[in-house]
Amino acid sequence: MPAKLQEQLSLADAQVILRRLPEQIQAASIARAAEIEYPIAVSIISSITIAIHHPLG
User: Fold this and answer.
1) Which of 18, 30, 43, 48 is deepest in the core (most CB within 10 A)?
2) In angstroms, how far is CA 37 from the centroid of its own chain?
3) Residue range 9-49, pLDDT digits in tens
């Protein structure tokens, strides 16, 4: 049975991702979400999208 895809990241999923990041990145992600007044899930999606489209290497 194929996995059902979601268009949005749930708060629970965002918290799981956030907990797996280094503390500095967690703090920066939370601060950025607060600064732009967006939910943390939206901020994480944005960060992932940017990383995919602009790889470091």
Assistant:
1) 43
2) 14
3) 888 998 999 999 899 989 998 999 999 999 999 888 888 88
pTM of the predicted structure, to 2 decimals: 0.68
What is the distance between the terminal CA atoms of the chain, rounded to a whole angstrom? 36
How distant is the alpha carbon of residue 44 from its chain centre?
A: 2
As given in the structure block, the two tokens for residue 48 are: 């992932």
How is 26-56 classified by DSSP, letter by letter?
HHHHHHHHHHHT--HHHHHHHHHHHHHHS--
Cα dist from 10 to 24, 50, 54, whole Å: 22, 19, 24
Closest of 23, 24, 22, 28 to residue 46, by C-alpha? 28
Report the distance separating Cα 44 and Cα 32, nearest Å.
10
